[in-house]
Amino acid sequence: MKRLIAPLLIGLVGAAILCALGIWQVQRLAWKEAILDDITSTISGPADATLPSDPAPEADRYRPVQLAGTVDEGELHVLVSQKRVGAGYRIIAPFTTEAGRRVLIDRGFVPTEDKDLERPAGEATITANLHWPQETGSFTPETDRDRNIWFARDVAAMADALGTEPILAVVRSEEPPVPGVTPLPVSTEGIPNDHLQYAITWFSLAAVWIAMTGIWLRRGHFSKDVQP
């Protein structure tokens, strides 16, 4: 019997640790879902008719706004890929509000072949969400300014290039609509939430651990019985 104590303890402790990790991931899942619900509620909330005087990337991220003003000349093209569509570009343009503030707007997506087509500027009303996307990293290619190809929405760099405040409004709708441009509104789709898969993995490992412990104990028991 003493020979079975060590494998039994190892099995119980290992299974307890793996189950605890699974429970922790379930708790993390509830936490992440609450965050996503909060973000969704913010995105779809009532739109402000004016910009915050000094918007902050954390406090004002996803804030809905409805702004009247003028889409100005000049635009930047950010390379992206759309499911079931393929490669294309986000169209980033300068926008001057009726209050005289000049900001960036993400008008939406165009296919690769439409990159250099002329798009209308002039008076417009946009419904949008403020956003400071975190898309740059050590592996982000350098902007090809000669061909006007950007590989990430770097708000500070784009604002410097177009002479605007470092504020990006991602368009949900634009009036009048822009022919050939499909809005890509802010959503929670790109925010990872893998905690359910992690929880299943830990609980599965716990089940395997318990099964292996049972096999170990069974072999230990029978090996004792067959000793001469």
Automatic annotation (TrEMBL):
It is a multi-pass membrane protein. The chain crosses the membrane at residues 196-217. It comes from Roseivivax marinus. It comes from the Bacteria. It is found in: Cell membrane; Membrane. The keyword Secreted does not apply. Belongs to the SURF1 family. GO terms for cellular component: plasma membrane. This is SURF1-like protein. Its main location: membrane. Signal peptide: none annotated. It holds the Pfam family SURF1. The keyword Transmembrane helix applies. Keywords: Cell membrane, Membrane, Transmembrane, Transmembrane helix.
